[in-house]
Here is the input.
Amino acid sequence: MPGLVIVGAQWGDEGKGKVTDLLAERADAIVRFQGGNNAGHTIVRDGEEFKFHLIPSGILYPDKACVIGNGVVLDPRILLGEIDGLRRRGVDMNNLKISANAHLIMPYHVLLDTAGEVKLGKLSLGTTRRGIGPCYADKALRLGIRVQDLLDEKILRAKIRTALEPKQQALRELSVKRRKLRKEAGEGSGVSEAEIEDAPDPRLDLHTMTEEHVNYGHRLEPHIADTSSLCWDVLDAGKTVIFEGAQATLLDLDHGTYPFVTSSNPIAGAATVGAGVGPTDIDEVWGVAKAYATRVGAGPFPTELEDATGRHLLEKGHEYGTTTGRERRCGWMDLVALRYAVRLNRMSSLAITKLDVLSGLDTLRVAVRYRSREGALLDTFPYHQSILHSATPEYEELPGFSADLQACRSADALPPEARSYLDYIAEFVGVPIRLVGVGPGRDQVVWLS
Ligand code: GDP
Ligand code: IMO
Ligand code: MG
Here is the structure.
């Protein structure tokens, strides 16, 4: 398995962290290739829970290189907080390597993300407000600040100055500063409109920001490296690199449910760009899907359930966002969407997580086609957003099971209905299921051949 990509097959939070941790046992390097701290990847080892936002999910192995690739957008304050937190828990951070070419999420990106959402009002995307979109936008505009810039104060200051000016203007227009100040000062505090307009936001001061980031640079310097060549060396030695995706296929900027997507490409093809390897370095693609579906944030979700079954999934599955704590929207497994994800990523294997959460439901439903508003049957994921927005799913019903799966460790131990459910999915999408999650713990897994 020299080059293996792990991707989310639905709308995120499928359990990529757990699957990465499991497969990393046989790998030599684990690389994040896109996204930023909008991600929240959970690992539960011996009852201890770890939540990673930027650090690859291989970090609990002291002997493996963990790489933040060039395709990631990185908030240095958050990353240092994560490093410090893990160190305090006794995790060895020496093998963490950060691409010098990764882009930085700056304070103005976070402010712009929030301002954009506030401005959209009811039409907001429900972003994580971590500055992801504005940071990738600056990268494309060639106004981005990269990790390597932290190491040269003069360059850093000049780049921040250039990048900052249009942001200040944009933020002024969105009058975020004014709203924020008013909130902090309190209505009736005597702060005049003029004072509010003119008050500089301390987070947007060029000198403060430069100084703060030079300091981050000093702290991150031991980790900064040429991470593409690190990957080449591992691959050329015939060893294994795992490319750990964040977010998921249906949140892909190009192929997801645009505009209700993230600002990067979470699909497998992006691993090459985001880590600096070639397409033929990829040998396997594992898709991770929950045994049902969830989505956090706005956007179309054909199989969404707003009834008792939806509540069952939310509560039994503890479906609250790892990053923002928001309730996740829950629904049935959507095989039309999953088959689309299988093809886009050219998946070689599937991992199905959270099968245990389905226990207690008499009947299980899986969407096998959609019906358009006009009544047409759709076997494939519609490319036109208006059609997807109004599509209703048609379901196949399968028998449910009531046994608690959390102690199952082999296919034979699973109830026959659970096995049939998995077989149905694998056959429908044409990809073998190799791993099944039956609980959050690392050992709560059934390997299938
Ligand atoms: P990721 O973003 O794809 O890494 O997924 P998250 O960590 O955001 O969300 C997955 C959640 O489900 C976490 O709380 C995991 O601990 C949990 N989890 C993972 N696999 C299973 C499983 O098989 N069963 C159950 N019950 N929980 C799981
Ligand atoms: P992991 O890696 C689930 C969603 C947000 C929002 C949209 C855009 O843990 O699976 P952004 O902040 O990226 O601009 O928000 O994408 N989103 C995620 N949903 N899991 C994630 O990451 C997500 N990262 C972003 O909720 O709808
Ligand atoms: Mg998550």
